[in-house]
Each structure stands twice: as structure tokens, then as C-alpha cells.
Specification:
single chain, mainly beta, four-stranded antiparallel β-sheet
Length: about 120
């Protein structure tokens, strides 16, 4: 079993920055790709970015150039550095990790960007 815990959310003004963390614990040896998603109430969960175990990254188009995903395998932690934040980035941000047979999700952390 794997547990994921996000942290780092909060309130920030438009144009500001936040850094999210996702700490993994439990049987993490078989985790491969890890991702960030976000969700606004009443809307579908939206993929933000992903990173493989070897460090290859991918981003949703609207996040390219503003968000940076990274991971520290020694610390079992994934990060999301968010710059130039916009009000439309307001959402609950979730991390997800892929195991052999299933995926795991954190409980989410709220990010609110004021205009």
C-alpha cells in the first residue's frame, strides 16, 4: 500500500508563486510515473503534469513555461513549482502515482489565486 500526502497549497495573488509537494510512503519501490492533477468543483479532474521515474516530464499546454514538475527519489517526494499564477489556476491539486496494478491518489491541497 502507498500513501501520498500533498502539501504547500494556499492563497496567493495573481502573478505569484507556490510550490507543492507530494510525499510518498509505504511500498513505493514499484512506483513509476507520478503526476499532478487539479480539480475545480463541478468540473472534471484535469491533468497538469507528469514525471517518470527517470525524470522525463510532460505538461498540459496551459502549464508549459509556468509550472515545473520534479521529483527526488531519495526523499520519495514529487514537487510542482508554480509561477505566474492566474486566478484560473485556483483548484484542489492532487498527486497521483502509478504502481504495478493500480494508481494511488493523495487527498489534495487547495490552491487559491486571487485577482
Amino acid at each position: 500500500q502507498v500513501q501520498l500526502v500533498e502539501s504547500g497549497g494556499g492563497l496567493v495573488q495573481a502573478g505569484g508563486s507556490l510550490s507543492l509537494s507530494c510525499s510518498a510512503s509505504g511500498d513505493i519501490t514499484r512506483l513509476s510515473s507520478m503526476s499532478w492533477f487539479r480539480q475545480v468543483p463541478g468540473k472534471q479532474r484535469e491533468w497538469v503534469a507528469a514525471i517518470t521515474s527517470s525524470g522525463t516530464t510532460n505538461y498540459a499546454d496551459s502549464m508549459k513555461g509556468r509550472f515545473t514538475i520534479s521529483r527526488d527519489n531519495a526523499k520519495n517526494t514529487m514537487y510542482l513549482q508554480m509561477n505566474s499564477l492566474r486566478p484560473e489556476d485556483t483548484a484542489v491539486y492532487y498527486c497521483r502515482a502509478l504502481g504495478l496494478n493500480r494508481d494511488y491518489w493523495g487527498q489534495g491541497t487547495q490552491v487559491t489565486v486571487s485577482s
